[in-house]
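Hey L., structure's done. Input below.
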Amino acid sequence: MTDTPSPAYELDALKNLTNYYAWIVEEAAPFLGSRIAEIGGGIGTFTSLLVQSHVLRHPERSLEVIEPDPTLYQSLVDHLQSRFHDLVLADRLRMTNGTFARPPQPFDSIVMVNVLEHIQDDEAMVRTIYQSLTPGGTVIVFVPALQQLFSPFDKAAGHFRRYEKPRLQHMLETSGFHIAKAIYMDMAGILPWYLLNVLGRSRAINARLARLYDRWGIPVTKFIERRCGAPLGKNLLIIGQKP
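Output:
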């Protein structure tokens, strides 16, 4: 496909990648606190896993989801209210339409999954997040990795950049964070991404191929990387802790 799709289309194409999102949740779960914010909830795909794995199981925990896009926000509200109506009524799941800013009361954890690359002044966002966390609080950042993989798809999706581990670690440390975890993820995805999106210049996700890779490729990749690590990867997960 060569046409530029809408953000909602791209998120819809990714919504069935259950193994991909579950892997992120599993890596982040030990660092999540009681009062959580997710910046960039999209249509609620990752949010739903976060609620199921972390909020529903712990009555003292809550989640606020911030989505700046008005169109995506309505889809987010419809999705989460239909699935987690009781949590919304109990004020343990809240949704906000707008740009993230320092809240009146700080959060214990702030999560961004495939969001920071969309923000032009990413350093300013990281500083705002630092100011928005309690002492000991954590920021969990998952982003596309390796600038060499920047493709027409990245540009069409509104990405300003892809990240290398040293640069993102330095950004968090400069803002005051200690790095609790920093790992590349999905090394096996580098070659398909390069062939399809860099050389092939695809500007959209092939939902069928993505589902096949999620079903068969992600479990194998996760198994290997958890035992051997990954010197590089298509994605990067960094967790910073505020002293």
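The chain has one domain: 7-241. The mean pLDDT is 92.

-- N.
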